[in-house]
Amino acid sequence: MIKCDHVNKTYKDTVVALDDCNLEIGKGEFVFLVGPTGSGKSTLLRLLLKEEEPSRGEIHVAGKNIGKLSPWKVPMLRRNIGTVFQDFKLLPDKTVFSNVAFALEVIGKPKHVIDQRVPEMVEIVGLGQKLNNYPDDLSGGEQQRVALARAFVNRPLIMLADEPTGNLDPATSVEIMKLLDRINRIGTTVVMATHDNAIVDAMRRRVIELENGKVVRDQDRGVYGY
Amino acid sequence: MRRLSYYFNETVNSLRRQGLMVFAAVSTVFISLFLFGGALLIGKEVNLILDYTTEKVQVAVFLQDTISDGDRSRLQTMLQDMPEVDSVRYESKQEAYRRFLQIFKGEPAITNNVTADAIPASFQVKLRDPSKFDVVAARLSGQPGIESIRDNRDILSKFFAVARILRLGAFIAGIVVLAAAATLIGNTVRMGVFARRKEIGIMRLVGATNWFIRIPFLIEGAIEGLVGSAAAIITLFILRRLFFNSFHNYILFWPVIPTSEVVLYVPILCGIGVAVSLLASFVAMRRFLEV
Predict the structure, then answer these.
(1) Structure ipTM
(2) Which of A61, A87, A207, B221 lies deepest, with the highest CB count within 10 Å?
(3) Distance between CA B197 and CA B203 in Å, rounded?
(4) Chain B residues within 8 A (CB-CB) of chain A?
(5) Same structural domain for residues A115 and A176?
(6) Quick check: B124 and B58 in contact, CB under 8 A?
(7) A114 and A12 co-located in one domain
(8) Do residue B203 and residue A110 have CB atoms under 8 angstroms apart?
């Protein structure tokens, strides 16, 4: 589903973000991406979304060499990838319903599809009672669930999560992880960059560790540290 | 349908949020196109007057009162034989006086002080090519009985010079202001993009196409251009009514551009306004909307 082949990324020719990075992630896998700040986790996620181009190497996502993807096809790539972030990225002037519906609206889904799928999706993340609330009325955990609903409402093949629990307390984090696990169990490939050792240790999934842009560990059913 | 209402809402919201900037952009489009339209109108008017005058007599050969009948008929034959001359008409003192009375009827202050005696007889000559006046004048010089020869185009040439400068000035000013208008529209669009950068970021993340993101901003720019050009067109129509028509009342031979011709400028001005606005919006967004 995801394959990186000798991927290098340098900024301004001097700062090395990724250094000869090779990895392969199969369909339906759940992968933790760990490593200290600045080790290249976020860069890797941005490259997978084709927000940036690798300096060298090839990246395949969902069977396509995204380096060869013409710019106007990039939106189609992104429709196959759901994304959640540490800071939720919700629009404060839209309700829960509108925030989730936004993801479908901007890719041109008809209204009857939106009216059906959005409440379903919000129900799945457990916020069925709060469809008409605004993000500011919600707790951090609830906001992240809205973000998850938005990322998954179009049923993408891949979920990318960049420290989704970074702003949340441990109990709330567990709830988010249960949702990600559920999303993974229906066949979605999940890649999650995180610093949360408790979660990584509890889930016992594949762990890929980056350090200075290099893959230094790739372990099935791994833990956060050695 | 849903898409159309989305574009519409986005555009309206954005225009409302940036009221003052939008006003500045629309005003500059208005000023620019007003100058352009003014240049077009002045140019058209000058051409009309030129047509009108060149259709009429170009050269008047005034005769001395003492000219003999023999000299007069010799002059007439001479003029008629010149290849440059299209037609010659003799205007006697009485005919000239009647025409004078006609032109200045309702101006007793002028007509009361001039007798038929004061107005000379003349040959009213029409040339095939008005610019050949010098040739004709040279051939006539030294002939007996001629008081003076007048090139009628001389009378209007000062007016034409002023009109040309006015037209050129309006045209150049129009271009300069149009550049300012383009910058201002580009800037409003850019500020709109900046104000909504978070939203746009999410749109790109969930796979909205670039055109989907761009279209509301392009519509916004086009509306600003369209409103500005509409205002310019309305103002030009009003000014044409106020000024040209009142000139027409004072100067009888002043031709006024027919409305049907002015209407032809409407699509030109709207076209310029919208095209420049779209281009400015597009260029302004380029940098912000790279994938």
Answers:
(1) 0.86
(2) B221
(3) 10
(4) 2-3, 6, 198-199, 201-210, 212-213, 291
(5) no
(6) no
(7) no
(8) no
Question: According to DSSP H, which parts of A106-191 are helical?
Answer: 111-124, 140-152, 170-185
Q: For residue A59, what pLDDT band results from cuts at 50, 70 and 90?
A: very high
Residue B138 and residue B6 share a domain: no
Contact yes or no for B199 and A91 at CB 8 A? yes
Task: For residue B202, give the amino acid letter.
Answer: I
Question: How many domains does one find in chain A?
Answer: 2
- Residue-wise pLDDT tens digits, A66-98: 999 988 899 999 999 999 999 999 999 899 999
Which of A53, A83, A106, A148 to probe by mutation at the B interface, max B CB count within 10 Å?
A106
**Burial label, B109 (beta-carbon count in 10 A; 0-12, 13-18, 19+):** exposed
pLDDT(A5) > 90: yes
pLDDT band at A182; cut points 50, 70, 90? very high
Verify that B35 and B170 share a domain, yes or no. Answer: yes
Does one domain contain both A17 and A69?
yes
Whether residues A151 and A165 fall in one domain: no
CB pairs under 8 A between A and B: 53
Residue B58 placed within a domain: no
Assigned domain for B60 exists:
no
Q: Does residue A174 share a domain with residue A150?
A: no
For residues A104 and A92, is the Cβ–Cβ distance under 8 A?
no
Check whether residue B168 and residue B248 sit in a common domain.
yes
For the beta carbon of residue A201, count every other beta carbon within 10 angstroms.
Answer: 13
Evaluate whether residue A212 is within a structural domain.
yes
Q: In angstroms, rounded to a whole number, what is the distance separating the alpha carbons of residues A132 and A122?
A: 11
Number of compact structural domains in chain B: 2
Question: Angle, nearest 10°, between helix axes B152-195 and B2-17?
Answer: 100
Q: Is B145 in a helix, a strand, or coil? A: coil
Query: What is the full per-residue pLDDT of chain B (291 aa) written as tens digits?
Result: 567 777 888 788 877 877 888 888 888 889 888 888 888 887 777 777 766 655 555 688 888 888 888 888 888 888 888 888 888 888 888 888 887 777 676 667 777 777 777 888 888 888 777 677 778 888 887 788 888 887 776 766 777 777 778 778 888 888 888 888 888 888 888 888 888 888 888 998 999 988 888 888 898 889 988 999 999 999 988 888 787 667 666 665 566 677 777 788 889 889 998 999 999 999 988 876 664
Q: Which stretch of DSSP H or E encloses residue A102? A: helix A96-105
Band of pLDDT at residue A28, cut at 50, 70 and 90: very high
CA of A223 vs chain B CAs: smallest distance (Å): 30
Which runs of consecutive H residues, i.e. helices, occur in chain B? 2-17, 19-55, 69-81, 93-103, 108-111, 133-140, 152-195, 197-205, 210-239, 245-250, 259-263, 265-286
- Among A51, A106, A110, beta carbon nearest to B206: A106
